[in-house]
Amino acid sequence: MADVTERMLGLLSTLQTGRPFSGDELTRRLNVSPRTLRRDVDRLRGYGYPVETQPGPGGYYRLAAGRTMPPLVLDDDEAVATLLALASLAATGTSTEGGIDDAATRAYGKLDQFLPARLRPRVTSIRASLETSPQHAPGVTAHQLSVVAETISEHEMIAFTYTNARGERTDRRVEPYRQVHHLLRWYLLAWDGEREDWRVFRMDRVTDVVRTGEPFEPRPLPAGSALDYLRQGLNKGKEPVRIRVDAPAATVIDVLKFQDAEIHPIDDQHTTITLALDSWQWLILNLAFLEADFHISEGADFAAACRTFGERLMGATRT
Amino acid sequence: MADVTERMLGLLSTLQTGRPFSGDELTRRLNVSPRTLRRDVDRLRGYGYPVETQPGPGGYYRLAAGRTMPPLVLDDDEAVATLLALASLAATGTSTEGGIDDAATRAYGKLDQFLPARLRPRVTSIRASLETSPQHAPGVTAHQLSVVAETISEHEMIAFTYTNARGERTDRRVEPYRQVHHLLRWYLLAWDGEREDWRVFRMDRVTDVVRTGEPFEPRPLPAGSALDYLRQGLNKGKEPVRIRVDAPAATVIDVLKFQDAEIHPIDDQHTTITLALDSWQWLILNLAFLEADFHISEGADFAAACRTFGERLMGATRT
DNA sequence: AAGATGCGGTCAGGATCTGGCCACATCTGT
DNA sequence: ACAGATGTGGCCAGATCCTGACCGCATCTT
């Protein structure tokens, strides 16, 4: 009895010629019974190969090659971009069965079979010459993301188990609205009925997703986009802060150009910054780049965060 | 446990990427024991696929060029991964005409034609429900990357103009060896004949690539991999820093995801970070986000910067 | 030398495969 | 309409293969 995989590879090779073969002919080639041949054909179909048949006199099995690889209208750049996108995603994850990175790896290994013959040498040369830096990111399964996407489209509630950052598990039942990809993480924006509020979940902490079959009436999103809401969630509160800096206004404007702040010169060498603080860490980064002394005139919470972090920095350097 | 044939086809796809994979990584992807993996590799060898290995630290399995691949189909997860990869790459860049992100955006819009009809509803629902966060990264054209890949494969010298970080332009003529994707940037590892040494170039600073038609005799790479050499080059002249953090490794990995650092757990609640210091300000930002105590074990310059900035923060809060 | 990788034999238990048999569906040619 | 030649899929008992665990070993790097 031959190795099954070997036989399947042989059958694939035979069928990829695109010719029709009668069952009788295939059983002779493979040296198996007609029943086993039928199982083999079913097996190929299970893997996604579109094997066509026709019963009756002159009946046959045939691999519908034209449907496996439909004519592609990707131009050269698009094909290369697809390849590079897969290479990049393949390097992002934990190499777990079912993970997106695993699926991306396999797709990356197959892509040339879906491109016109003229692009194959290019794919081969890119693959041979490209290295990607591994990037650790929490695993999410392609299956879970696509199930959730379908329930969003169909306005169907889902239930799942959520594990928060401290390891506590809760069962949730929500209306799903958007999935967001942000800084190597996948998030779900959903309405939580029990809490009567919007919630953002990290998809790598979501397990045991179940489709409830229960439809919901869509409600308006809580912000312009799910991404906006996600960002707001990551930045709590907005404390008014005023800082006097020992630096010229022009310097301050240059360093704080990505910060939404009001900047006024006091004199040639001193400047006032006024802003609504959303992240003390990002403001500290800007102040670090300024490399100038400063004084916090307003903003007790920010001052407290600075004191705490300052103490921490001093403590870190003690031997 | 997957059907053996299915698993072998998946393993073939994975190995076809040309990358080296450790046994550990493959066992995780395939969800089998190490012993079974070894049998699978033997099985592939028996079918004529030349799988190379290297034992010892950094050991791996890799598929050498040789045997033709059987016809392969995209499974559901692979199709989803392709879609997500394109979505992610489309959001990464500067939206410049000709850039990879531009091509990825177009391919993302065309993916349906790529896929069997049964997957179309899934693609549609993912597209409708997914948002991706824009990520600014230096732009590179798909055309340039593929031209360079071809010259690497064909051992052909290229000429180009290079603009360094200070804006100075030089003409270069080099032997190209590898393109590397690392932390959102594309690099080229090449041998520079004039300088008689290896050089790493950022591809977004490379312009006016010209194929010279002149072949070169390949020389051995300067390190185990181009990525290793790239890391050494990027780290050259930077201060080695070692920090002990009172936080679990998983938390640290989460926060330092865009930092090129080695992160090792000491125990459940303590972690060591080892890195070459690029910018003390950016590292301080990461440490601020960690919200945990830490101690600097190595890196006198960094410690001094922390002390100075700590004093500045403390001074800023005095009334 | 220690440790991290790959290697291959052996075993018991479990899983899958096989050919034969059967009733059935579909198609073509007379 | 019918006969015959094709493909279809369930069921069964017996045979075969696969698996993880265990073990001792080889190779490579630091």
From TrEMBL, chains A, B:
Pfam families: HTH_11, WYL
Example of a GO MF term: DNA binding
Top-level taxon of the source organism: Bacteria
Keywords: DNA-binding, Transcription, Transcription regulation
InterPro entries: CBASS_pafABC_assoc_protein (IPR051534), DeoR_HTH (IPR001034), HTH_11 (IPR013196), PafC-like (IPR028349), Tscrpt_reg_HTH_DeoR_CS (IPR018356), WH-like_DNA-bd_sf (IPR036388), WH_DNA-bd_sf (IPR036390), WYL_dom (IPR026881)
SUPFAM superfamilies assigned: Winged helix' DNA-binding domain
PANTHER family xref list: PROTEIN PAFB, PTHR34580
Name this polypeptide is given: WYL domain-containing protein
The species this protein was found in: Phytoactinopolyspora alkaliphila
